[in-house]
Amino acid sequence: MSAVAERVDQFWSYADEIEVLTFDMNGETFALEAVMVQEILDLLPETAVPGAQSFVASVINFRGKVIPLADLRLAFGMEATEATIDSRIIVIEIDLHGEQTLVGLRTDKVNEVTTLAKTASEPPPSVGMRWRADYINCLVKRGGEFIIIPNLQAIFSSRHDSAGNSH
User: Fold this and answer.
1) Which of 46, 52, 92, 113 could form a disulfide with 36 if both were Cys (CB 3.0 to 4.6 A apart)?
2) Residues with Cβ < 8 Å from 84, sequence gap 6 or more?
3) Residue 159 — very low, low, confident or very high, per pLDDT cuts 50/70/90?
């Protein structure tokens, strides 16, 4: 079994369906497990962090805590876009290096909470993808479109964009 197929199996290991929050970035639909989502916020003032990875280059104040604000578009090599009236920040809690960490994700638009089925999922194709396959847990077909479930563990633990740091 390929590493990608194993990752898809691991992602679905505990359920045949998952409840997700769907959101848009650059015309693509993404989904996060609903259990990760702490809150959906209107855009907040950001503070730039010099020397940070480009896709987490700023922080926001969330309920008195300073948390990183990530722009997954940059991790996926998409163009950064200007905020619109629909832009939101999704605050998630994710296990990074064994520690529960709050992170804000910048989105173009938050859509809905819905249920996705394992039977509609498939691994990302190994050819023809414009993004790193390890950044995607799986694609889930719904209607005539695919919903992308990003692999946040891989994205946030990656050192590929370490802005001159030699790790």
Assistant:
1) 92
2) 108, 109
3) low
